[in-house]
Specification:
heterodimer, A: 77% helix, B: Rossmann fold, Alpha-Beta Plaits, 6-stranded mixed β-sheet, 4-stranded antiparallel β-sheet
Amino acid sequence: MRYGKFLRLVLWEFEEIWHFPTLELIAGIAIFFGLSTSSTITVLPSARGLDVEFALSRFFMFQMLLIAVLFARSIAGCIEKREILIFFTYPVKRTSVLASKFLINLSLTFIIFGSVVIARALIVHLEPWNTSVLIVLFILFLQTFFLSTLSLIFSIITKRTWAAMLLVIIFFFTISSALSQLEPPFKYLFGTDPIFYCLTMGFTHYTFEDFTVALGSIVITSIVFLLTSFIYFKRMQVD
Amino acid sequence: MDSIIITNNLTKRFGKIPALNELNLKDGGGISGFVGPNGAGKTTTIHILLGFLKPDAGTATVFGLDCWKQSLQIRQKVGFLQEHPTYPNAFTALRFLEHVANLYGLTQPRQRAQKTLKEVGLIHAAEKAIGTYSAGMLQRLGLAQALIGEPKLVILDEPTANLDPSGRLDLLEKIRQLHNDQGIRFLISTHILPELEKICNWVSIINEGTIVDQGHIEDLADKYSSNTYRITVSDPSALLEALKKQAFIERAWSEENIIYAKVKDIDAFREEVPRIAAAKKMQLIELRPVYGALEQIYSKVMKREEQ
């Protein structure tokens, strides 16, 4: 029964997001960022994986903005407008409410951008199950997961839509700027390039240490953000 | 009936601002009113009862369950209508209630949703988007979502706010009907007293985060009335003559076959009147204090507090 309630919350959230008027626009812009390039047909066979990875990096900024907006609207907005009280009135766990919101927003974003990655792979004549494409999808998932947990924690702490969105952007630019000043391997904290190159070509461009720092920082930070958000949400007081 | 809502020295502060100060609330078992001026702490109390807020000190229980630690179990038994509810505007009422029914773990959620919409008189608008609803329709929807889980207790926070007079009467009649037919208990928070008086048997008065008085309306009326009683008997003129001779009566008079008596000694009066009626072989139909409207009790309680 508890499982049924969780699925119902997921469905509820999905139906609300589906009514989001700009969802179609988001998908359109994602496709534009992912697929628009003049040299797609002439990509060399050896560079096709890189081309797909390049497509991913091209829409990263848009992906970050989209996740920030979706989470801010779905979670911070819900608290700000006191819509969250509706959920707190019914016999469902707070963690289930948050998990459903997190899951649907994460999935929706991953599906939109994952589809663009697969479409890009097909354009450059790569099968979707090609190792390079799967690695790009894995990186896309890590990236989406990290940005989602970042947006989640800011949404819950600020409880304000605009504040949550702005903080995600400010945090990202501050971190990027600070990290670029550092020396390897710390330069690669939260970076996806070492992960892609190490997984596709071995440790030729980046060291094992660079790879571990990049992957570990994303995974550990995401988990810490996620757990902190859930604990805070569970104990949060709403009036 | 026993109280199911009990708070003991409940205290809550928002920063430096005290919201509740050692509040001791209990319900009367039937339809209970929770009255007080704006900002007195009514909504804060309700939010603690539902587990939205954690008390700083004291305890709050509903059905014997701790409101903060066991709020999930409490919410399974309690329906709640917020003061300014925000529902998903894009949903139809039927779809929304179907989701809610599922969250309560009910079987046949769609049928339950339809039945509840019918019960609150919204079935005609079941397929309309909630965003198109009027204030009155939203309030009915609010009542529907509070009732769909088959609650044993329903908490209504300012339920008649934004309703026109006929909408208010309809809602109050619905509450009375639900209590009589299904035995649902209600806690109604409001500052509009004449409405409450029509349906409540118990009232708790809150001011500045403290319960200043609470009890059955008759008892409070007794407490704050000016010792005037109303007596209905089968032979009013005979009783009136007898009463005028009694030392515990200050003054007695008759209006349309009903006797009114200003009493000096209430205990003697309550003891003697039934005896006199029995001695004169007349039927005692009614003996109760004449009290003003709940509004008068409320104003007397508040005045006493000010002093």
